[in-house]
Amino acid sequence: MTDADLLTTTRAFRRRLDLTRPVDRQDLSDCLEIAVHAPSGTNRQPWRFVVVIDPELKERIAEYYRKGFAAYLAARTPRPDQRADLASGRYLAERLHEVPALILVCSVGRPPDQPSALRLASFYGSIYPAVWNLMLALRTRGLGSTMTTAHLAYEREVADLLGIPFDEVTQVAMLPVAHLTPGPMPPAPARTPAADLTGWDGWIR
Ligand SMILES: Cc1cc2nc3c(=O)[nH]c(=O)nc-3n(C[C@H](O)[C@H](O)[C@H](O)COP(=O)(O)O)c2cc1C
């Protein structure tokens, strides 16, 4: 797989997740070791990970996720081009508890209470590169995931469930991880060409 293949075919994998095949703990550990090579502000490495494989815990998290996802859906009218993505989102929500592993990515600290562009960029920008590193590392091992956040509507409840110290640590994303079922891996569709979104020596004309 070339770099371009890896980067253009690492999708939001939902229907392609094999819910019947366990994932290897060592594979997950290896991928997490790659994730921690991501950049972070002043190299503070704020990431913490909680890997959930226990069926009862997954069931409880999935319940919170489904409630969060339902509220998200209720609050929006999707554009026609978003309908397939939301249908696949619903598919995942209904089966989240069956996904072999859920990786919660957390960041030490709470989001800034007096947000500024700089503080927000530093807080969230110091954690999402690790999330993406992790997704790419998983993909190189035939494992798929989706960046998800719907459970964050119940962040405190999930923190209590897993013993995450809510006042000191923020959950930022959850990756449901499974082997990918066999089949072609086309690039992600529906991307506006970068050429249309880029200005050179000034804003886009
Ligand atoms: C910050 C963020 C939050 C997301 N939250 C969810 C989520 O809660 N549930 C979900 O199914 N997908 C979620 N997604 C996945 C997006 O829907 C997906 O990345 C996007 O539609 C592109 O999909 P594609 O790469 O397969 O084209 C999230 C993505 C991002 C970047």
- The global form is globular
Write down the Rg. 18 Å
CATH fold-level name: NADH Oxidase
Instruction: List SSEs in N-to-C order.
Output: HEHEHHEHHEHE
User: Briefly, what CATH class?
Assistant: Alpha Beta
Instruction: Describe the largest sheet.
Output: 5 strands, antiparallel
What structural class do helix, strand and pairing data support?
A: alpha+beta
Mean pLDDT: 96
Distinct ligands, ions and cofactors found in the model:
flavin mononucleotide
Helix count, per DSSP? 7
Helix proportion: 25-40%
CATH architecture: 3-Layer(aba) Sandwich
Distance between the termini: 35 Å
Q: DSSP strand (E) fraction?
A: 5-15%
CATH homologous superfamily label: NADH Oxidase
- The figure for the number of domains is 1
| Strand segment count | 5
What keywords describe this structure?
40% helix, NADH Oxidase, globular, 5-stranded antiparallel sheet, binds flavin mononucleotide, 205 residues, FMN, flavoprotein, oxidoreductase activity, single chain, alpha+beta
Explain the layout of strands and helices.
Layout: H1 3-9, E1 17-18, H2 25-35, E2 47-52, H3 55-74, H4 83-95, E3 101-108, H5 117-125, H6 128-140, E4 143-144, H7 155-162, E5 169-180
Bound molecules: flavin mononucleotide (FMN).
The site of flavin mononucleotide (FMN) has 11 residues, from helix 4.
What does this structure look like?
InterPro entries: Nitroreductase, Nitroreductase-like, Nitroreductase/BluB. This protein is α+β, with helices and mostly antiparallel strands. It has one domain (3-181): NADH Oxidase. 40% of the residues lie in helices and 15% in strands. It is built from seven helices and five strands; from the N terminus they run αβαβααβααβαβ. The chain has helices at residues 3-9, 25-35, 55-74, 83-95, 117-125, 128-140, 155-162, and strands spanning 17-18, 47-52, 101-108, 143-144, 169-180. Strands 1, 2, 3, 4 and 5 form a five-stranded antiparallel β-sheet that branches. α2 (25-35) packs across α6, α3 (55-74) packs antiparallel against α4 and α3 runs antiparallel to α7 (155-162). The longest helix has 20 residues, at 55-74. The chain is globular, with a radius of gyration of 18 Å. Bound molecules: flavin mononucleotide.
